[in-house]
Amino acid sequence: MMSSFIKDLPALGVSLLMNLSVLAAFNFVVFEISRTDPVNTIVSDLQDLTQEERLNFAESITEDQVGNGGASDGMPPSLSAATAVAGNEASMQEKLEEALNPEIAQLAEAAVPRFDGHDIVSTVSIKGNTDNAMGGTGGVEGAMDRVAFEIRQSLKDRKTLVIWLMDASGSLDKRRAAIADRFDNIYKQLNTGGTTEGLYSMVVSFGDKTNILTPEPIQDVAALSEVVRHKIKTDETGHEYVFGALKMVLEKYRGWQRNQGPWNRMVFIVTDERGDDFEQYLEDVISLAKRSQTKVYTIGNAAIFGRQKGYVHWVGENGYEEDIPVDQGPESAFPDGLQLPFVGARPDWRLNQMSSSYGPYALTRLCAETGGLYLITEESRGYGFDRAIMRRYAPDYRPVRVQEQEIAKNPAKAALVTVASATYQESLPVPTLEFRAYNDNILKNDLAEAQKAPAEAVYAMGRMYEALKAGESSRDKLREDRWRAAYDLAMGRVLAMRVRFLGYNQMLAAMKLSPKSFEKKDDNMWRLVASDKIESGPEMRKGGELARTYLKRVIDEHPGTPWALMAERELSTPLGWTWEEFSQPIPGSTVLKGNDQEVARLLLADEERKKEDNKKRVMQRKNVPKL
């Protein structure tokens, strides 16, 4: 594997450089893309703004009050700044060949690779004043206070039709109920100013299908609350076709009461996901909303930083609990963060569920383009960050086609997006760190099995590094803080991971060739632990130093951000390995060691117990819903 990798390096470098050179030429080529549904061309309000102007959009966010995570000894600066809030069958090597080989995946075909309707990463724009300035109290309450203000402002101008577009999935039961509880209050606030005479409202639910629950808009607040509480049937398909639902409603009611003069239209989307059909309908919906002068607002969740999946905690009637994955992010239109495990470090699930401080791309861009707001009513359960700091790192809110052109012009961006997309398709393995030594045969078998996946990972990391390095000359041309932080973190983590995986493989090979002896007679287990001593040769020690240089630059230049937090976590774990011995009885017994026959009998009994436990879990999961 390694010899093949080394032979490929010159060809890879030439191919990447040739491919990147072709990008500039293809930037001037216009591609016709056929669609089943015709797309209306729109001109984005955000398209022609400079980056500085885009970042100056005031943020409008309604947020739940959350407690600070307890600071532990030795907590890094970015972790102190953060708030702790509550498959494919193809191998990684094949995925990388597809993503990085210019002959297989031509960047010029669509400027840069991007995800389809199931995998795309999203960017978001948030306009308006901060909710705190409006006296917001956070959560659904704060959002509804802001809703009341927005409706009141609309009614001062002209009569208004308000459309409530409700997510019918089971994960929204509590939020819909909370909003119904607030209906009386917000409409009472409006009535105080004598402004409800020209206000009509309607309720539409969406999931796999769209259901218009009030075909004729109504003024009766009690009836409105009743519809939300009792007329929305829970959708169990797991589909969230919000953009198709909005398109249907905009087309159906664009001429409503036109003979009575001009009307304002406002849509309030209530959801906790990004929507499954944004790639198909987003541009159409933006165009329709603009033509009908409809402002769109979203009462939703913060997008997960750099990731597609968030989790909703579910408790069944039988007491079984599970975190169900839902599509809640990420926050940028193209993948710019590598999905890599933290090898050798203590697991911290909060790193995989960090808040991006923004909503998902399609919904928030829809709100921004139509003059509405994306109101964050619920944060992720992972780490959160100071929004004053995160404003410097706002995602690009412009249309995908505009971003494609800019990414194609910068080899550093193109390389980063290409490599990041490969890690979204297939994740790297987390290597086994503990090995059974009940006897020599068990130890050798465990070592041989553990070497398989990391051997492939070493090759993958080499490919990733060469791809990123091909764009390094353009790194200093990156003007945006977000891109610089993402590129440096990617380079630092890839180098660090490469050193770790290569060192890991060499440690296992040496132990398999000549097993170490225990210092204590009762010890029967070996554990690999991180060490400052890198024994994989001078080239890897040099790579380790270069990794530290990149990671330290991220920490120094981007303090208090998710990129700095991940760089600190990477640096907190040494890049080398050492063996540590300990004792652990063979599962299901008090026996520490034995011959092949005795150990096989005990392990077989343990396997049977695991199978029974798995059957029980399968039964418990029978009623887990799709959200």
Can you walk me through this structure?
The longest helix has 33 residues, at 481-513. The chain is globular. The protein has helices at residues 2-26, 51-55, 77-81, 92-100, 139-157, 173-192, 221-230, 242-253, 278-291, 361-369, 387-390, 400-409, 411-425, 440-470, 481-513, 538-557, 562-571, 596-620; strands at 83-84, 160-167, 199-206, 210-212, 264-270, 294-301, 309-315, 321-327, 374-378, 383-384, 434-436, 525-531, 576-582. It starts with a helix and ends in a 7-residue tail after the last helix. It has two domains: 2-34 and 90-119 and 403-582, no CATH class; 131-338 and 352-395, von Willebrand factor, type A domain (Rossmann fold, 3-Layer(aba) Sandwich). The strands form four sheets. The chain has a six-stranded mixed beta sheet with strand order 4-3-2-5-6-9, sandwiched between helices. Strands 11-12-13 form a three-stranded antiparallel beta sheet, covered by helices on one side. Strands 1-10 form a two-stranded antiparallel ribbon. The protein is of the alpha/beta class and 627 residues long. Helix 6 (173-192) packs antiparallel against helix 7.
